[in-house]
Design brief:
Two copies of one chain form a homodimer.
Chain A (H helix, E strand, L loop, with lengths): L4 E3 L9 E3 L23 H4 L5 H8 L4 E3 L2 H7 L7 E3 L1 H7 L4 E6 L10 H13 L4 E6 L3 H12 L3 E7 H6 L1 H9 L3 E5 L5 H9 L7 H14 L3 E3 L6 H7 L1 H12 L6 E5 L4 H15 L6 E7 L4 H4 L1 E6 L8 E6 L21 H8 L4 E5 L1 H15 L5 H20 L4 E6 L7 H8 L10 H9 L7
Parallel strand pairs in A: 5-15, 6-7, 6-9, 7-8, 10-11, 10-15, 11-14
Antiparallel strand pairs in A: 1-4, 2-3, 4-5, 12-13
Chain lengths: 454, 454
């Protein structure tokens, strides 16, 4: 029996539309509010930040939104991505479960992030934007937007969380290779950066701070917009190309998932895989369990509150209703930098409230153990973020063994770990710790949530 | 017009056989000699080092050697690899040339090396070998053999050039993730290592030294063999899966190369692409130019001698006739670690002598400039080694522009640069230098070539 089972789609089957879960929800998600008035924001409020096409996608309830040909043309550099059956892992686990994974690590930056970077780059360029500002944590997003900016002739300014800027020079080099400018955040370039530095000259930065800086720079110039790599509806929408392909590939495998799994930071790779399947269920298709996996050190879905909150630390963004740890909460340093955000995508939060998804949290040592186990069986070294999904998939497969049931598990292997080998080095040296967040800080941050009726 | 033009082969078209250029040569390559007797070695002389199937392949003159199903099964994890037309690069260069590239960076370790690692791992396992020793420079080869060893249940011991062991901890982490043991070379584990350390306690090591250590360890135990990642005939043979796929893909593109390009360290990725095309030419097919590109700091083909020489510094290996800088020559440190070997594959050397290939050398600053240019146009960041091929492809395309001719260029993009971003960081910081080798050291090394009649 062949041990490698890979389902590839011909380029002709690259999806022609993204799937919009908002079209099928039994209850609409809460509106985005203007922080000054407390009233729902309209397109004009968002126009300084985003191109109009993106704003319309943010509020659209159309079930399918066509992918522009120019975006599909770039997607074809690496898409359709492969879907594998993890037969060697199944054997190593001695499980009756069938484990499948969708692999997004074949993209030019090694993760799922270019799926939305390319779309946002295209829409901005088409509407005459010359420059985009953004933030990045570990650098997956910044490098992906840099890649897209280069292809569409856009200037890209990336505010990179200072601790990552210092500790992860390689993703910074990747951004510069693609022609982007990368600035350590907090910086002296913005009022919000200077305010933080005045109080904390040695600030390590955070995603919330970097967002404030990027937003501040975007609204200052007419030719400049802002871009976000996760959380917002349009970002999740663009990522559904993952799930749309996976549906076709599971069909080739003559299988359908009983359990769907993805890791969650802002929520976009998770949503990208699972929303199209949830859509099928909402339209009368088969039922399944859907598991969002987050780090125990930044437990947005499992320990945060579902409340209106700011997306950034400087409170420059609109208010969105989401699972949040509070916009002033600074997650401790751990190795899955892509999962260190205080909030969760409003749509993911909403689906959690509707009972369509469940959530669980893991500590990083067990997550890296799972990643090594996966690499030794399947030959692909996952990114630290993706290791969270791997851990949950392994646990579900072991449950199947205990229960003697042959369920079908599908998870999103959202990126490779080639940029993150320092974390594996720490893991093998026994230097990884199970980092706890600060309970008192969390309580303070949650108590400081803005007073908006939920 | 679509800018992304990618030629993918269906899995069903994964080659069923490797191509052996020895079958078609007008003049056979010189035999490998026993260093003691000066006589051609027989299979029994090599048996302590290699499994018998590999030894037979080393001397085979069969035109096609079937790829075992177990090897094809693992190949299917990432093969067939894509072949692209670099239309965005063509546009950026304003050239009438058509530029194609075969992309091997989609493999689990990000380079072409697993093509032979998997084959060697399989043959060793089938013949009952329990442990394989090998050397590695920058770590591409060591991590690939570690990957293969894990899949076939083999223990892998890697002697890694000390300077790379210290400067490139991430590829070491990759080896350990795949379960291999990685030792800095020269080490205290071997007589050859101890001899070097006695004289040079601070030795940075070299591939030649690491080979001596790996060979020494292999011959000591019956359950242990040695494995080499380049240079030898069977290694080049396994890499021809690249060219066999490329022939089918160029056919899909309705094109045929006028110019073939690959970078050369030991010669295997170059040979893997070009040998199948040269075979077609030798059997009456179309003519083309074939260019081997090497670093000016380690100019084996352009400045070395075609002579019998040892493959290692400790003179434990048989003598092979190859372009060499002398086995005592230690190339200076530069960023394409995979190209720092004193010799060149005997088959590549032989084809150069027969006039079937030409060679050129570039300095590393111009090579990195070419790599950045490529990344900004095509979205893929090449490995420093592959940048040599990129530079030659760009130069050929610019020549076509000057001459007003529309030639078809095909080069091997043998790996991605995600593990090598430190080199790009140095490049952007202006820290890369055009390193010259030591002329006096080269003269000394060449004068010390073993006295074998050529």
């Amino acid at each position: 029996m062949d041990e490698t089972v890979k389902y590839t789609l011909d380029e002709s089957r690259l999806p022609e539309a993204w799937y919009n879960v908002a079209a099928d929800l039994p209850e609409p998600p809460a509106p985005v509010l203007h922080p000054g008035t407390g009233q729902p924001v309209g397109p004009d409020d968002l126009a300084p930040l985003f191109p109009m096409e993106v704003i319309l996608q943010e509020v659209s309830t159309d079930e399918r939104i066509p992918i522009p040909e120019e975006v599909r043309d770039v997607y074809r550099l690496w898409r359709p991505t492969p879907l594998y059956r993890a037969r060697r892992l199944e054997k190593a686990l001695d499980t009756p479960a069938r484990i499948f994974y969708k692999y997004e690590g074949v993209s030019p930056t090694g993760s799922h992030k270019p799926n939305t970077a390319v779309a946002q780059g295209f829409y901005n360029a088409r509407e005459g934007v010359k420059r985009i500002t953004t933030e990045t944590g570990a650098g997956q997003w910044g490098s992906s937007l840099a890649f897209a900016g280069q292809l569409f002739g856009l200037e890209i300014d990336v505010y990179m969380v200072r601790i990552s800027y210092q500790q992860k020079p390689y993703r910074r080099a990747l951004m510069e290779t693609f022609g982007a400018r990368c600035v350590a955040s907090p910086s002296e370039e913005t009022a919000s950066g200077r305010a933080i530095l005045a109080e904390h000259p040695d600030s390590n930065g955070s995603l919330g701070i970097a967002i404030s800086e990027a937003v501040e720079m975007a609204v200052q110039r007419d030719d400049t917009k802002y871009s976000l790599g996760s959380v917002l509806n349009h970002v999740l929408l663009h990522q559904t190309v993952i799930g749309e392909e996976a549906i076709a590939q599971m069909d080739l495998a003559d299988a359908y998932p009983d359990v769907l799994i993805g890791c969650t930071g802002g929520g976009s790779n998770f949503a990208g895989l699972v929303f199209p399947f949830i859509g099928q269920k909402l339209r009368g298709g088969a039922d399944m369990r859907v598991i969002a996996v987050e780090p125990a050190a930044c437990p947005t879905l499992t320990r945060g509150e579902l409340a209106y909150d700011f997306g950034d630390t400087g409170h420059l963004t609109p208010l969105v209703k989401m699972h949040t740890l509070g916009s002033t909460f600074v997650p401790p340093g751990f190795h899955a930098g892509g999962l260190r955000y205080h909030g969760m995508a409003p749509l993911v939060s909403h689906l959690h409230k509707l009972g369509l998804i469940e959530a669980r949290a893991y500590h990083q040592t067990q997550v890296f153990e799972a990643g090594v186990r996966f690499a030794r069986a399947e030959g692909i070294v996952p990114a630290p973020e993706a290791n969270h999904a791997v851990k949950a998939a392994i646990d579900e497969a072991l449950r199947c063994r205990e229960e003697g049931v042959s369920e079908t598990i599908l998870f999103n292997l959202s990126g490779h770990g080639h940029f993150d080998m320092a974390a594996y080095t720490d893991h093998f040296a026994g230097k990884l710790e199970d980092i706890e967040y600060d309970e008192a800080e969390l309580a303070t941050a949650l108590a400081a949530l803005p007073p908006v009726a939920v």
